[in-house]
């Protein structure tokens, strides 16, 4: 028996059944199993997994619905999502996975910010948004002695967005599987169009707009000692094409008048990311601390820091409890402002008879603002001997401008919180 | 833009090479000493579906989108 096989056998001997089932439910090798250096073992059983999730942004502070009429704060976005996956082993080394996701989105979304009685306030859409995202994808994987390779291809459809994507992941194991090289690449071919405001009022030069994205990732995972594993990953995401938000506009407040302008962004966007992960096992408490840090360098100026930590505790009888905390902070994009105060140089041209044409990018999208988010979270899992895994989690995201580290452009009018609840069931048979 | 993109790519590749060499220099842990690393609590994310949902919620609200893996899945970013 080769040394590498001894290593696998030793790990399998010590690995409990929960590990094996969880490893079998992993579909994103570049994400999840990069954390452990032993191979992403193929489960010899068929695994059926289902997850239901609910995301909600409760009503915030004072808001104004479309038309500028003061109104009671509305509940913002609400998303209900269902995912179903079937993983089937084929022969000794192959595996195929079918995956489908359906999201249903409803609620009100911020269209722009405007000025009312000297105060900048968000202008919400009426609760008219109703969208459905349907994703179908298939993954084929091969498990070699010292490597793993997979190819994923799929399609996503929404009321105003269509995406075709393909990705591949490769891992190579060195040093008796103490070291894992992680490589990944993907390409997206997307089409977007406006389904409602303002497209139903104005005809755009191009109804269908194209955007593309390619992404690559390279990393190394290393066993440091008998209780510790570390991973570093470097990646780049490059988007190009139509990157504007066709539903949003920005506002220029000048000479006591407001001038609306269409959301306008550069036609390319590059993000470099560096991720460091460290996991340590504590024998006394049969628990593990997982910490992760990510730095992102953004061509739009919206650099970010992310710190995520999770403490997974085995409390016996198949139960684990995992409290966690995440902190994210980003700098405002170079062309972001909640409201602009300078009119561009003449000529003042109006696009679609209403929107002012401005040179260069300009956006009031709250996602491009400077802010910070603190997210406490809790996850509970229970494994039954029959090969059934149940999981439930809850997290609250509290976004505030004052939590930002960079001290860049932002506003408390974009402060809000959201809740994310999900429950999963996985069964191996 | 294209030249700065290329320079950044070269810098990142060099950094990645240094990190890889450092990883190879670490003393190896014997195969019989890896039992704790195989414990279920050492798996960071129990469910890929829940992880995908969590990451998608971040992507739809934050500007930074990547770093953890590659793939697609549409926008879903109202």
Structure report:
The complex is a heterodimer of chains A (429) and B (78). With 429 residues, chain A is mainly beta. Helix content of chain A is 5%, strand content 58%. Chain A has helices spanning 3-14, 17-25, and strands spanning 47-56, 63-65, 70-71, 78-90, 94-107, 110-116, 119-124, 129-143, 147-157, 161-174, 179-192, 209-225, 228-241, 249-254, 257-262, 268-282, 287-298, 304-316, 319-330, 350-351, 355-356, 371-384, 388-400, 416-428. A 16-stranded antiparallel beta barrel of chain A has the order 1-4-5-8-9-10-11-12-13-16-17-18-19-22-23-24. In chain A, strands 3-2-7-6 form a 4-stranded mixed beta sheet, with no helix packed on it. In chain A, β22 and β23 form a beta hairpin. The longest helix of chain A is centred in the first third of the chain and has 12 residues, at 3-14. Chain A is globular, with a radius of gyration of 24 Å. Chain B is mainly alpha-helical. Chain B is built from 2 helices and no strands. The two termini of chain B are 30 Å apart. The chains are: A mainly beta (429), B mainly alpha (78). The interface between A and B is large, with 140 and 58 residues.
């Amino acid at each position: 028996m080769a040394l590498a096989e001894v290593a696998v056998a030793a790990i399998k001997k010590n690995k409990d059944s929960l590990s094996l089932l969880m490893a079998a439910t992993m579909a994103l090798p570049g994400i999840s199993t990069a954390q452990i250096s032993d191979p992403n073992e193929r489960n010899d059983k068929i695994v059926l997994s289902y997850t239901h999730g609910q995301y909600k942004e409760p009503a915030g502070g004072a808001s104004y619905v479309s038309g500028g009429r003061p109104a009671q704060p509305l509940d913002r976005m609400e998303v209900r999502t269902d995912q179903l996956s079937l993983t089937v082993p084929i022969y000794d080394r192959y595996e195929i996975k079918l995956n489908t996701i359906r999201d249903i989105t409803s609620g009100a979304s911020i269209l722009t910010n405007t000025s009312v009685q000297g105060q900048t306030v968000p202008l919400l859409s009426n609760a008219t948004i109703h969208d459905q995202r349907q994703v179908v994808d298939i993954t084929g994987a091969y498990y070699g002695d010292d490597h793993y390779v997979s190819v994923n291809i799929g399609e996503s459809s929404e009321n105003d967005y269509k995406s075709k994507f393909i990705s591949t992941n490769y891992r190579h194991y060195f040093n008796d599987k103490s070291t894992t090289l992680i490589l990944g690449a993907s390409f997206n071919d997307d089409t977007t169009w406006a389904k409602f405001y303002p497209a139903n009022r104005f005809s755009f030069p191009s109804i269908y707009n194209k955007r593309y994205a390619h992404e690559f990732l390279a990393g190394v995972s290393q066993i440091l000692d008998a209780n510790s594993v570390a991973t570093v990953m470097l990646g780049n995401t490059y988007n190009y094409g139509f990157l504007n938000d066709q539903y949003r506009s920005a506002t220029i407040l000048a000479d006591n008048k407001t001038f609306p302008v269409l959301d306008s962004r550069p036609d390319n966007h590059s993000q470099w990311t560096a991720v460091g992960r460290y996991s340590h096992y504590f024998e006394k408490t049969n628990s593990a601390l997982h910490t992760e840090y990510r730095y992102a360098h953004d061509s739009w100026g919206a650099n970010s820091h992310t710190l995520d930590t999770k403490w997974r505790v085995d409390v016996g009888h198949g139960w684990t409890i995992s409290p966690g905390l995440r902190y994210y902070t980003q700098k405002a994009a170079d062309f972001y402002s909640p409201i602009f105060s300078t009119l561009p140089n003449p000529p003042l041209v109006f696009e679609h008879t209403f929107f002012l044409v401005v040179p260069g990018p300009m956006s009031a999208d709250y996602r491009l603002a400077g802010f910070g988010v603190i997210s406490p979270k809790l996850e509970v899992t229970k494994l039954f001997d029959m090969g059934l895994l149940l999981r439930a989690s809850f997290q609250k995201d509290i976004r505030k401008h004052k939590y930002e580290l960079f001290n860049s452009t932002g506003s408390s009018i974009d402060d809000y919180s959201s809740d994310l609840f999900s429950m999963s069931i996985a069964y191996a048979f | 833009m294209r030249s700065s993109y290329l320079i950044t790519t070269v810098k990142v590749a060099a950094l990645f090479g240094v990190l890889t060499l450092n990883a190879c220099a670490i003393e190896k842990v014997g195969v019989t000493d890896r039992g704790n690393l195989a414990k279920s609590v050492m798996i960071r994310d129990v469910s890929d579906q829940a992880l995908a949902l969590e990451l998608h919620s971040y992507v739809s609200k934050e500007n930074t989108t990547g770093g953890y893996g590659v793939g697609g899945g549409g926008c879903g970013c109202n």
